[in-house]
């Protein structure tokens, strides 16, 4: 396939940015989206151009680093698919593709398609953990957890922290991300001791780091590459109300 790419280029966080046009030639339908960008960069380097900067790491849909908005949709719009798992067979010869970084107040652009997602880390640092000393490694069955609770917690723990929910939300809200972390620990006995303190601290961090409010657009769930459900936002709201009452 031969494709036309419109890629966001920006030299630094304080520099103006713009879309620039490139050609991707002889693209194999078996390539991943990032492999296609790798080949575009190889051609840019050979001709003395500046390669496109983008985040990537595992390329297996695990780490969430491949944060790109493709044709207006975070991760390209394929259900439960990260950019690194998006294959070029989903496009056809002659297509025009627009590639942009996450666009959110809390995610300042660093260069080209790379954004600073430190704000998400600060939410987890505010309370996304258990601080109780548990001694040595406990036997797997020492703390009995009902199967429905274990399944619920694992569904929440699937969140990879990529930030697609923030990029998709019209308000730039991180409620889906925050709620997944809160719900995961609130459901398990190990996390219930600090549940009230945790949810208050994490909601405060969410507000302090430039994220917007949730207004139930459900775009976050639609864009999430792991299918995190908005039911966890409802759980966060319940936990928060209980914490304020206490």
Could you explain the architecture of this structure?
The chain is built from 9 helices and 7 strands, in the order ββαβββββαααααααα. The model has no long low-confidence stretch (mean pLDDT 94). The strands form 2 sheets. A 5-stranded mixed β-sheet has the order 2-1-5-3-4. With 246 residues, it is α+β, with helices and mostly antiparallel strands. The chain has helices at 33-46, 118-127, 147-157, 164-168, 175-187, 189-192, 195-208, 219-223, 231-245, and strands spanning 3-9, 18-24, 69-70, 73-74, 96-100, 109-111, 114-115. The protein is elongated and about 60 Å long. It starts with a strand and ends with a helix. The longest helix is centred in the C-terminal third of the chain and has 15 residues, at 231-245. Helix content is 37%, strand content 11%.
Offer a few descriptive terms:
246 residues; alpha+beta; five-stranded mixed β-sheet; two-stranded antiparallel sheet; elongated
Helix and strand string, N-terminal first?
A: EEHEEEEEHHHHHHHH
Largest β-sheet summary: 5 strands, mixed
Note the total helix count: 9
Q: What does the radius of gyration come to?
A: 20 Å
- Contiguous low-pLDDT stretches (5 residues minimum) are none
- Strand percentage lies at 5-15%
Largest sheet, spatial ordering of strands: 2-1-5-3-4
Mean pLDDT, nearest integer? Answer: 94
Number of strands: 7
Fraction of residues in helix: 25-40%
What is the rounded distance between the termini? 61 Å
Shape: elongated
From the helix content, strand content and strand pairing, which structural class follows?
A: alpha+beta
């Amino acid at each position: 396939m031969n494709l036309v790419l419109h890629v966001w280029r920006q030299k630094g966080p304080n520099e103006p940015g713009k879309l620039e046009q490139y050609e991707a030639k002889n693209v194999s339908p078996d390539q991943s989206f990032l492999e296609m960008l790798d080949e575009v960069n190889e051609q840019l380097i050979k001709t003395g151009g500046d390669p496109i900067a983008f985040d990537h790491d595992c390329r297996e849909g695990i780490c969430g680093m491949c944060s790109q908005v493709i044709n207006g949709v975070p991760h390209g719009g394929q259900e439960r698919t990260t950019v690194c798992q998006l294959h070029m067979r989903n496009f056809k010869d002659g297509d025009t593709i627009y590639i942009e970084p996450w666009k959110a107040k809390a995610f300042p652009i660093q260069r080209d398609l790379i954004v600073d997602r430190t704000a998400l880390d600060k939410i987890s640092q505010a309370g996304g953990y258990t601080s109780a000393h548990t001694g040595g490694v406990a036997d797997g069955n020492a703390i009995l957890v009902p199967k429905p609770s274990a399944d619920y917690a694992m569904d929440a723990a699937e969140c990879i922290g990529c930030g697609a929910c923030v990029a998709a939300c019209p308000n730039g809200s991180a409620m889906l991300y925050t709620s997944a972390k809160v719900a995961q620990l609130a459901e398990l006995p190990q996390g219930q001791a600090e549940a009230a303190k945790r949810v208050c601290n994490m909601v405060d961090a969410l507000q302090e780091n430039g994220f917007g409010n949730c207004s139930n657009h459900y775009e976050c769930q639609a864009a999430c590459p792991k299918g995190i459900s908005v039911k966890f936002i409802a759980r966060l709201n319940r936990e928060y109300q209980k914490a304020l009452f206490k």
